[in-house]
Specification:
Length: about 170
């Protein structure tokens, strides 16, 4: 018996809409999944808004100071004031999947409440079971983006439903 993956699409009409999506994603992490380990992947072409969404989410979770894109370091760990551990990976420059082992991705798998991965499509076999997968794409104008969300896990389904409720069921955020 195969399971179906729940999918939804949203239109982000502005930078403010991207910020709002980051805040809704963060609200679920804080309010509904404080004792869970979450894996969120962001995929899409250059300039589609992955880093902007990642920054909005991390800021909404309480990351203070500069939020750097880990494009060159591949991973940027964060520790919130309450001790919660988060990790942000950017795999754009990943040359070989074995580099995930080198940067300690597998060693730290259970330590972070949230692992946020940009360019997860570079290593699809590793991240295919992510709780929530967001594919971002360019829209009709410079500010517009589309987000295709897929929730392969039960936790991801709950996360997706949470964000949808916050959007009032709208396809625009």
């Amino acid at each position: 018996m195969g399971s179906t993956v729940r999918e939804v699409a949203w239109r982000l009409g502005s930078e403010a809409a991207t910020q709002a999506l980051g805040q809704r994603l963060a609200a679920f992490v804080r309010e509904r999944a404080a004792d869970q380990r979450l894996l969120l992947t962001l995929s899409g072409p250059l300039g589609a808004g992955k880093s902007a969404l990642a920054r909005a989410l991390l800021r909404a979770l309480g990351v203070q100071g500069t939020i750097r894109s880990p494009t060159y370091t591949l991973v940027e760990p964060y520790r919130l004031e309450d001790g919660t551990a988060l990790r942000h990976l950017d795999l754009y420059r990943l040359a070989d999947p074995e580099e995930l082992e080198f940067i300690g991705y597998f060693d730290d798998a259970g330590q972070s409440q949230l692992t946020l991965v940009e360019w997860a499509e570079r290593v699809p076999a590793v991240f295919e079971g992510a709780d929530l997968q967001l594919g971002l794409s360019h829209g009709a104008n410079a500010a517009e983006r589309w987000v295709q969300a897929a929730a392969p896990s039960r936790l991801g389904e709950a996360w997706l439903a949470w964000v949808e409720r916050g959007a009032g069921g709208s396809t625009s955020l």
